[in-house]
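Hi support team,

I've been running sequence recovery on a batch of backbones for a student project. Most finish fine, but this one hangs at about 90% for roughly twenty minutes before it completes. I'm not sure whether the input is malformed or the queue is just slow. I've pasted the structure tokens below so you can try to reproduce it. Let me know if you need the job ID as well.

Thanks,
M.K.
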């Protein structure tokens, strides 16, 4: 990632707004409604993949109408600032709760190569959940290397580097309420 001064704000880095705040809120409502229907009569454990999934989780869960609990796990996909995963993500913070016999829904910010979520699914499957599905806010299908079944997708996006709404640029700008595309000269 190119150098930038976070004190100058996001504007010099922004090529375009990809998903607006109101589009994000509307989609969270739709996904939450769909999840509530699909899990009707059951309880769901939402697992947030830190840190990128935080904003999405907190907005999505407001629209879930079945009993739900949350837990968090952190995965290091690759070196901070790197653009793509190398296929060997590592769990750096594990869950607090047991997922055995529970309906688990992973809440992820973006699926790119798919290596991160594939690895997480592999690990969690060994803990014998009743079901295990993935809800990804963004999907970059064109960059997929590992097969990952996504049950819920917020937005299909092109191969562009995005930030905001939980997604970072060198750990900054996760707090933006919209998703922006990084100017190519900063890749
Ligand atoms: P994967 O293992 O699917 O290649 O990588 C998934 C992770 O890469 C995401 O959870 C996210 O942390 C990071 N990532 C992939 N694409 C982008 C992007 O366009 N912007 C940002 N900020 N992070 C990304």
């Amino acid at each position: 990632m190119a150098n930038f001064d976070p004190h100058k704000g996001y504007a010099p880095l922004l090529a375009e707004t990809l998903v607006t705040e109101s589009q994000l809120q509307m989609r969270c409502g739709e996904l939450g409604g769909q999840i509530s229907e699909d899990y009707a009569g059951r309880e769901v454990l939402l697992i947030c993949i830190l840190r990128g999934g935080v904003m999405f989780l907190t907005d999505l869960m407001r629209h879930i109408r079945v009993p739900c609990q949350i837990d968090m796990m952190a995965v290091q996909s690759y070196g901070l600032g790197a653009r793509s995963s190398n296929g060997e993500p590592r769990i750096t913070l594990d869950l607090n709760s047991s997922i055995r016999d529970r309906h688990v829904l992973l809440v992820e910010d973006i699926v790119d190569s798919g290596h991160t979520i594939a690895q997480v699914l592999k690990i969690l499957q060994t803990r014998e959940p009743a079901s295990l599905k993935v809800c990804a806010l963004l999907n970059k299908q064109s960059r997929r290397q590992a097969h990952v079944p996504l049950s819920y997708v917020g937005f299909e996006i092109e191969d562009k580097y995005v930030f905001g709404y939980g997604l970072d640029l060198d750990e900054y700008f996760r707090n933006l309420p919209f998703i922006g595309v990084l100017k190519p000269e900063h890749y």
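--
Follow-up from support: It reproduced on our side and the slowdown came from queue contention, not your input. Helices lie at 21-38, 54-61, 115-125. No action needed from you.
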